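# step 3/5: fold
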Amino acid sequence: MPPSRGVCLNSKHSFNESFIISVKTNKPQPFGECFFAHSLTLQPGHASAHKPKRAPVHNRTMRLDEAIDGFLRTVEFEYGYSPNTVRAYRNDLRALAEFVGGDDSGEATDITVLDLELLRAWLWDKQQRGYSAGTIARSVATVKSFGAWLEQRRIVPGSPASRLQSPKQSKTLPRVLSEQQLDRILGRAASRAEGGDPVAIRDRAVLELLYATALRVSELCTLPLTDLDLADRTVRVTGKGNKQRIVPLGGPAAKALDEYLRRSRPQLLALSDSDSHTALFLGNQGGDLTPSAVYRLVSRELEQEPGSGPRGPHTLRHSAATHLLNGGADLRVVQEMLGHASLNSTQIYTHVSTGRLAQTYRQAHPRA
């Protein structure tokens, strides 16, 4: 059965709804938790009477849809989150709003209905519907950010999601292609490009750049033409959180990109109604290349290679990182190249690079 909404054991105690202070901690408590609290009346001369008062919680109750719209505007325009992050937040919060307003009454939902038990019930419902632990963990992150924003803006006394915990996720090793498989994939792309077709020339450049730099597909599709420096063989990449990094690329990728810029991009741009496209890669009709088009391209190539597992562009990213470590690259260098904020995200590739570990063991251990 789904978790119940629960009953507050301290319901016999009353509290001031406009501002709540815990007797023990003297701090605002998370909204929806049960605790004993009362309003404090400061006497003249009391030490706390001279401290500035905290801003009260808004008197007007905000609707849930209003709060969601305000939060999404904040993360997009004030925090500068990426379009993908904003889209994920929007999808999660719309799903939450639909769950809360599931009675089809047509009445606007008050923000005060959000509490810890309701959020747990929503997550339990997602689990029962078959959502993966990773998807549920993302939903938890969404409502935690939303709850923190509600508390920061003094819309509610405290975040209703402060005590939510993400489900444990099983760590699965990413699919990694061998160097021989990558040679075949890039060789086939080069052969098709020799015919002079602008789409084939572009596709070769896309595959070469994905493998050479381990870019995310979103980073590749939004890469401006001006951020490519063929003379220095580098690209300036704007990753998650608008953080920029400089990533080197090798000779084969530079050659493929040079051919694309000379022979393919001008032809693709001529198909567009506008000549003001600033993205490096253009689609078949002259517009910006989309992530879905890159997924289809990589998937077609991976279908021709043995092995099961994901067939998207991230497989090339995983493969590039693993091959770097197998070749002796330092883990922190790979972390910087991938744009990982934490080294923990990069360490998964150390489990994949067993070939290098075995080779090092045979060369270094006296009893190998």
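# step 4/5: annotate
Residues 173 and 351 are 8 Å apart (CA to CA).
# step 5/5: archive (pending)
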